[in-house]
Amino acid sequence: MRSLSEIKGFTPALCSQLAKLGIPSIQALLLHLPLRYLDETRITAIRDLRLGEQTQIEGVVVHNEVSYKPRKMLNVRLQDDTGIINLRFLHFYPSQVTAMQIGQRLRVFGEVRPGFFGYEMVHPTQRKVGEDTPVNQALTPVYPSTAGLSQAAIRKAVNLVLQPANLLETLPAWVYQSLQLPDFASSLRLLHQPLPDMALTALEDRTHPAWQRLAFDELLAQQLSMRQHYARRKQSQAPKIAASQTLVKQLQAQLPFSLTAAQQTVIAEISHDLSQPHPMQRLLQGDVGSGKTIVACIAALQLIEHGWQVAMMAPTEILAEQHYKKLAGWLVPLGIEVAWLTGSQHKKEREHSLSRIANGEAMLAVGTHALFQDQVQFKQLGLAIVDEQHRFGVGQRLALRKKGQQAQLEPHQLMMSATPIPRTLSMSYYADLDVSVIDALPPGRTPIVTKLVADDRREEILQRVHDACAQGQQAYWVCPLIEESETLQLQTANDTFAYMQQTFPQLKVGLVHGRMKSAEKQAVMQAFAANEIHLLVATTVIEVGVDVPNASLMVIEHAERMGLSQLHQLRGRVGRGAAKSTCILLYSKQQCSQIGRQRLKVIFESNDGFQIAQADLNIRGPGELLGTRQSGVPMLKIADLERDAALLEIAKVTADRLLENHPAAVAAHLQRWLSQGEEWIKV
Ligand code: ADP
Ligand code: MG
Which UniProt keyword terms apply here (predicted)? Predict the structure, then answer.
């Protein structure tokens, strides 16, 4: 395929401008679709203009003056048979002053605004016309652009590559015909060069068949790429693990609870994967508190029983420590050794862990990202479990997987996420994984009561926290997130801590934040878990996974600054025991943005992680929800997961059929959509 620079008309300057826009190739340029369209097919009489309207007018210049007060500007007045309008230019070239001299007929496009002398347009586009210059026949596309690259230049560039040879159909006709969508070439042509008489509304909302065809193609490319990737990994070999005969039974006999039906279902799904000679690639989703840890533990036991080691990685030390304790508590009584590994360990302790992992004494290793550093050598790793997977980058998960690659065998992989992923998102960006969902909480939980309280009632809330603690409850006080400055955030936490100690001398108050040494952090968390601390002042470090069932009250300051999943995670720290729990969201009336208000409403009204995640997707879009997973992964540009959910379903089915029977179509389609050499997902 020819590169852009080989085409006549594409100067090096133009090519480098296009490269800045992320357009390195002909196909990428063709798929650079308009943001919107202008209707320059009609001329509106000045008398009929309406405020806020984007429209085209035509008239003769009757006034042209450069004024200097209050600042330098060019004022032009344009008259037609029905009225006069003012055109104002704050930045202009001398050539424009002459181009718009008195008597000149102009066609002008801009937004109608209120001005000093009736309506005006500020910086409208203008061009000289004669009395019978025809109006444009079709809508004018407006492209995403970058400084120095004019719309006219992009349009010209697009038109140069809009050639049949570049618009070959990649898909068998049955694919798009059954959807009643047009072929690729006519869809793309229509979007770049709308037909005469096409209404603006038809193209503006992207439900037009031409838009739908492109959205479908994009979704299909994503599915093909990710499913192909999935299939490739499915071809590699992994240890084939039979069901557990003894250990799982022994563990269950010692548990104080029995597994829920939802837990049993996902355990069956995992066991099935493990019994295959290919690596499991499974994402285990479950709302906070749904009991993922025990599921992971049972998966681990299955490997351990057959002599394979397991690694479990968590994103923070607090969480890793907690997992370590919990898992050791379950496994050590069964005679299984568990090792613990973090970055902040003492050298000796660390070396001890490393050697037990290397010689296979420790069958389970729990830790932070310290687990996948070079010095860590497993004797025989068979399963890597990644908790809160969205907090890890693609590279980190890959590194952990590589740890186990020996004798041609790859370890199985189980990822866990307490941030539920809305269905459309998991169908698209997670199409390279199998997904299991724990869809019900263990019985006996009393729902958390959420209260929204304006922060002018902070005193009253402080009193309430005091009273609750005095009566034997435990509480979290979560300090505000200060994104701009970690130092300021720490200071706030320290100040709050000092204030609480002073105000409530009879309470034991603790403090935990991200900058503390991990031993200190652990000591505080232990004391809190042992009920030696009544009130724990914390930053958002406690957001993930912390499990102290006796804590039943949480106050979150400046809740309006926090994201939805963050609030849901934080709130999930209470309501873990039998006691009735309350979460109080303090918010600042003055500082609460529109989005902040929207979020608080969602979190107030819902306790359901999936509903909250769906709302989050609607408010923030997929990029934020995907976290680090998205790094290096292209985002959907044309398709919208909400609007095009139906297309996504079909793209998924179609991808399977194409991968099975139409390898040439798959190759051609991916070649077009991934022409920049990128992949949808790398792990
Ligand atoms: P998460 O899914 O958020 O990681 P955890 O695994 O930490 O949740 O479980 C939350 C709490 O529920 C833990 O204290 C755990 O021991 C308990 N738990 C897990 N499964 C059950 C069950 N089937 N019945 C009762 N309690 C359970
Ligand atoms: Mg957890």
Answer: ATP-binding, DNA damage, DNA recombination, DNA repair, DNA-binding, Helicase, Hydrolase, Isomerase, Nucleotide-binding
